[in-house]
Amino acid sequence: MWKDNVRLSKNFQDERHIDVHISINNISFYLSCVYGHPSQSERHHLWKHFENISLTRNDSWVLIGDFSEILSNSEKIGGPPRDEWTFRDFCNMVSMCDLVDIRSSGDKFSWVGERHTHTVKSCLDRAFINTEGAASFPLSELEFLEFTASDHKPLLLTLGISEPPKMKPFRFDKRLIEIPNFKHHVKEGSNREKTKRDVTIMDQVRTCRQAMSRLKHKTNLNAETRIKHLQAVLNRAISSLVHSERQLIP
């Protein structure tokens, strides 16, 4: 799975934590993939393990996964509030390891489930980065994707340095041929540049492509758009705290 310029070495592995060192060209960082213990009374062992690691780790460090824990009651919706002392060990670990949350987009309440008579949503899944890592990867972003087959949202982490976004290549959709007056739209698009001086064939191809893209959008042929709409409907049902709405989930 790795390209020739990527090197990965494993430092540690158990059922709760995999720690690796990754080098890409002249950039390197540590990555810890986390699955916090389901039992609250057992989680402090992993937090203490991270605190011990941090004592000798001065390079960039990213931690990502299901921590099975939150930092405060503000990261929970539904159910009775927890006692403040229950957050102490997790908060102390984050502070001692010099960690901050990576900037994110999407709904950070990444887990939803039933607890006794309540539906609860919590920020159990996240990505932390230390100060050194934040300086090395200033454009990093964590995206909370939509619910799929799990009661946890998948996370998409981008460790950004500075690289311009890549444009998606144009691909012809043969369904366009079935649209009435399709040939007229193509001809109109390709002739749009002819009124200008020094027009090239590439200019005509560009305007023709733009015309077909607008036509595809106008006629709602974009399957990705329809999938996103249906996914949003499903996501609202999964995220809802109303039992009757959650019953609509297939």
What does this structure look like?
This protein has 7 helices and 12 strands. The protein has helices at residues 44-54, 88-96, 131-136, 182-191, 201-218, 223-239, 243-246; strands at 6-13, 17-24, 27-35, 61-66, 76-77, 99-101, 104-105, 111-115, 118-122, 125-130, 141-144, 155-158. The model has no long low-confidence stretch (mean pLDDT 85). The longest helix is centred in the C-terminal third of the chain and has 18 residues, at 201-218. It starts with 5 loop residues before the first strand and ends with a helix. It is flat and about 70 Å long. The chain folds into 2 domains: 6-158, Deoxyribonuclease I, Chain A (4-Layer Sandwich), CATH 3.60.10.10; 167-250, no CATH class. The protein has 250 residues and is of the alpha+beta class. The strands form 3 sheets. It has a 6-stranded mixed sheet with strand order 1-2-3-4-10-6. Strands 5-9-8 form a 3-stranded antiparallel sheet, with no helix packed on it.
